[in-house]
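Sequence, please.
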């Protein structure tokens, strides 16, 4: 078929030998503080905040588990402070994840939220910054216990899910990290001080 001929032609044109090419990092994360505020005229103004924070880290099971704890606990703190106390949003959450890199693995925290009205944007930004600062100093032990119980319960349930196994195999093959063998032991060992 024509597709097979084109595939053979393409593959034949790829050099079989030559210099060893090292992979290069395409994703470039910022360092320092950058603010990009833009506005446009809208019938019903809909402000939206997106914030990213990143730092170098080791890529291992413990840091992966700590990132999951941080995601859950920071989301709880933000929901209480920004939505319930300030009424500045209907929904807010944090996602903390490890980024595998050819240069230096990093931990990336992203916070995204629509804001209920333009007048509350600066208030929400200030509250988010306060929550982030507080999370670097102290974490509520009750929230850690709640998240830990949830992780332990889900660990057994996940063993029956295809998506879990796809992620586990992918982590092992592409990032050479075993996220299964010591998972429960690692989750059990986490303390509030480890997360802060």
């Amino acid at each position: 078929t024509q597709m097979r001929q084109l595939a053979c032609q393409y593959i034949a044109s790829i050099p079989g030998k030559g210099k060893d090419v090292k992979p290069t990092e395409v994703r470039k994360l910022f360092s320092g503080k950058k603010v990009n505020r833009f506005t446009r005229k809208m019938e019903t103004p809909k402000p939206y905040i997106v914030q990213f924070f990143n730092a170098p880290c080791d890529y291992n099971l413990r840091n992966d588990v700590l990132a999951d704890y941080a995601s859950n606990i920071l989301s709880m703190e933000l929901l209480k402070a920004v939505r319930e106390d300030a009424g500045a949003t209907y929904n807010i959450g944090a996602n903390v994840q490890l980024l595998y890199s050819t240069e230096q693995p990093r931990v990336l925290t992203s916070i995204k939220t629509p804001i209920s009205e333009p007048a509350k944007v600066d208030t929400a930004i200030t509250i988010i910054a306060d929550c982030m600062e507080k999370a670097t100093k102290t974490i509520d032990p009750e929230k850690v216990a709640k998240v830990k119980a949830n992780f332990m319960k889900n660990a057994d349930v996940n063993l029956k899910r295809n998506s879990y196994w796809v992620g586990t195999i992918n982590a092992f093959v592409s990032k050479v990290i075993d996220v299964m063998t010591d998972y429960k032991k690692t989750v059990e060992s986490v303390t509030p001080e480890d997360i802060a």
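The two ends are 60 Å apart (CA to CA).
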